[in-house]
Design brief:
Its main location: membrane. The chain is mainly β. A hairpin with a 4-residue loop joins strand 21 (300-313) and strand 22.
Amino acid sequence: MRLFLSLLGLLYFIHIPNVDSQQLNQTIRGQIVDQISKSPLIGASVSVLGFEPAKGAVTDLDGYFTISEVPLGTYALRVSYIGYSDRLLPEIQVNSGKETVLQVALEESISEIQEFVVTASEKDRTINEMIGVSGRTFSVEETRKYAAAINDPARMASSFSGVVSTDDGNNNISIRGNSPNGLLWRMEGIDIPNPNHFAFPGSAGGGISILSSQLLDNSDFITGAFPAEYGNALGGVFDLNLRKGNNQKREYTIQAGFLGTDVALEGPFSKNYRGSYLVNYRYSTLSLLGKIGVPLGDYVTNFQDLSFNFYLPTGKKSSVSVFGFGGKSDQNKDAELDASEWEFEEDRYNTNFFSNTGAVGVKYNLSVNSKHFLQATVLASGTELGDAYDFVDDEYIPEERFYQRLSNSKITWNMVLNSKLSSRASLRSGFYFNQLSYNQYNRAYDQDLGQIVKHVDSKGNSQSVQAFSQLNYKASERLSLNMGLHYLQFMLNNSNSLEPRFSANYQLDEKQRLSFGYGLHSQVQTLGTYFAEEEVDRDITLPNKDLGLSKSHHLVLGYDRSLNPYLRFKVETYYQHLYQIPIKEGETETYSILNQQWTLMTDPLVNKGFGKNYGLEVTLEQFTNKGMYFLFTGSIYNSLYKTEQNVWRDTRYNGNYNFTFTGGKEFQWKNNRVFGVNVRMNYGGGQRITPIDLEASIEKGETIYQENHAYEVQNPAYFRTDLRVSLKKNKPKSTRTWSLDLQNATNRKNVYGTYFEPMSNEIETVYLTPLIPVLNYRIEF
């Protein structure tokens, strides 16, 4: 480790001759393919806009192009091919440290003579052409430059319409009022486990993303009415794509910051082979500081992760990719062994938490012919989580209060076939088979019984099956239709769902578009919930084993307008009807799994709950033009649920409104320097909490909620400002970037919730994170 730190220091102090005044250039290259069959397009034209005379290239027999000696900066590229719609790619960043390598797919036109031409921009369309509503693409640059995004897709997405961060301390997000646990993560076309450090059981988020921005390519984010290929999710979808490594030259990235120290390596396997590798390793900076003796306070936080993508062509029409990620994280705290220092009850607890996650996949791609493209993938993944709390009594002897250890593993097989039926129609069909294994153990202290009670002690396996088929049909130059079916079956209890999906887009003219979408969606519960145990007359039963799938109808209506080539206005309204939601049985019960966020639910549940989410979302976005961009989003919404009490209540996530402004400007300085300022301001309604029964809490010595008033109290309005400044310096063969993120720059005390403090017999308020500076340095060469 000392050698590694020494190497970092050496790289920083390496002297590069001062040649700042010279004009620096870089290469843009890549491949142009058909959107459906992935076959290369020979003779496609690629031009960099803004040059006179024109600067561009034409693709070769394999669809590859190279544009040399492009001055550093941010450009828009136009890609054209006879019989295909033009594609406009804005915000293409050209730096000296790395070549810019692109993979671009073009959509075939339905007629050679068009009624009018709609130029598709990379930013106002999704990568997946089957997404008709509530979707947008996001780029790696956005995860880097958005204030407080810190290279994390989930934190970046909180700038988008309908998305609200549920806790500053992690990247959990609520989409259109849904629980964060309704989010689906997908990578390279196959479902993956929650890719975050410090993840809790059943959650879809965590403290820090495992995924490195060094590996991510442009990807899709969907907030409702998903196409038929996505299943087992109620809230939203992250559909992530991985970047291939540079297959012509070796390149490096080293990044050191408050959160972690990264080293990335990419390059070709050999000179005459188009294959490439891309690997990134990261180690917690706080762990490094702790190892050299820097005091880090009460909580000791450690993490490390590895992510990779190996691209291996096996012929002109086929390739194999080996990809994956793995992350280890833990957080520990020792109790204060001096009674005079006990101010809060948490001072008397030893805590230990760990969260490990990993996935490895092998994908085979085959361009069967000019009409068909086949993709087959197998992915093995697993998670292991553990949590323990010990209470130190007056004699400083630890007494167990809670322990759980949960491990899940999954092997997924999938096959997807893309078929171009004609210039008007394409069909995508596929299936998924999941082999699920689990080992769950959970016990906790029961205050009434005065002893530890076991809730779950089970291991075994089960399976789930998914299948889909969806058709994209261009009825005319103006009207595009997507229709399909998704089937999901959980083999443990044979619960199943056949789900129709539909969307339509109608182009009013070259600047305006109407859209409509509908989908029925379902989701399997967290495995540990099914195997919760209950003892009845000394017999152990599994009351939740027969829980059915949670289901939701999504309806979306939208309007898009391009105000100019760089400015877009969008409005969407939606309604979601949720049913078969697990709740506690009884007319006095107010619990619904729709409000679940952190822990594993082990109480007996029934599928008799309901929910509804509806709202209006507005987006005004300027794509980067002359170094400036901005994104304004506003949401007015309602999120409600109902139990057998037959009363509609606010969900935990019903803030009612949320407004976000994200923007930035880059200033070109002399000597190849670029100074950037980015800001994000968020104002929204506070989350809902259940009031505490103070008298009952004092009597029992722990927090007792007034469950008959569930989520009737709303926290004060949430307001937060994040600021990011950066300085990028291009050298002849390297790019260096310093950045400083000020999270919660105004140090506002936003309320998270309340709890009962036994040491003082008072209700205490918990606040979200204060001002946090995050300094980062990155060098690419």
